[in-house]
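Hey, sorry for the delay on this. The queue was backed up all week. Below are the sequences that define the complex (chains, strands and the ligand SMILES where applicable).
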Amino acid sequence: MANRYARHDLIPGWNQQHLADATVVIVGMGALGNEVARILAMSGVGNLILCDPDRIEESNLSRTILFRQSDISRLKVEAAAAALVELNPQLTIEQRPLPLVHGVGLGELRDASLVLSCLDSRSARLQLTGRCQLVRAPYIDGGTHPWGGEVRPYLDPDGPCYGCGLSAEERSVADVPWSCLDTRQENPTGAAIPSSALVGTWMGMIAVRFLMGMSCPSGILKIDGCRGTTVVIQQTRDSNCPLHMSIDSVTRIGVGSMDTMLKLRNALPKLAVPLAWEPVQQGVECFYCGFAENRWGLPSVEMCPQCQKPLRPRTTLELDQVPEDLILSMLGIPPGEILGVRTQDGLKWFELDY
Ligand SMILES: [Zn+2]
Ligand SMILES: [Zn+2]
């Protein structure tokens, strides 16, 4: 350990132990996620949670240092974890090959040292922002342009958030953090490794300083590859921004996401209705022939067994009708999730184990 980090020890103020003790959540393992993850791994950040539902495509390979030709069609988090452990065998890595709402629980976001948003759509960024705000988690958002990009450090939970910088119309894709969002990538845009590397390096720079308790830039970094500049733009907190709600007190119930609905139900007050953050499917129905069936799980596109036309999922946020033997993760509930629960005394928060 001493040898690997010998050059770090010569930097005034560097604290290798702080990095070793840190847990960083990286959401999105595309070009930016790759750059940031390798910087954190090589710096000696001890624990990473990688979240991305996608598999590697050939078009990723022009921008992703951790992926190889032979990784095509592998899960991004799996290939990244393998490459990162080769870079630094002292790392602990958790893989979450799921969309972020299903991949990382609110309790995990709260307990992480830092969250890094390496996403490629506004709706996904807003969703992650809303979840970080709910538990007051510090996070850094990165985004690239063809010749540069932006880094937005939101390290003070009482300061501005990503939503504060947007107009009401831009935010309207997600006015509440639990709304049903389409977080699929928007139309693909041009991207090249110099921009991802620049933006990812700035994110890594700020992350490493933050984790060691050093001062960090407080505005948005605008990185311009044509002019050769990085300019810091101050941002203010918008009191009309709808994303500032936070969860106050939570009750831990000793139930995990691999436990059954029965165990959850028994841990909650009588007649309580647990709520999902995203709609879950309770049944499917055929618009054409009238076929209908209860089928709990994540919404999916399936074909009618009678007429082979696409079935329509019937969804709900209320989990009081879920069968007793269903495992919570089958409903997309991640480890450490904090669930809103409607009780006779109003909405209460209950936290799952992780
Ligand atoms: Zn805000
Ligand atoms: Zn049918």
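The pocket of zinc ion (ligand 2) is lined by residues 286, 288-289, 291, 304, 306-307, 309 (CB under 6 Å).

I'll add it to the shared folder too.

S.
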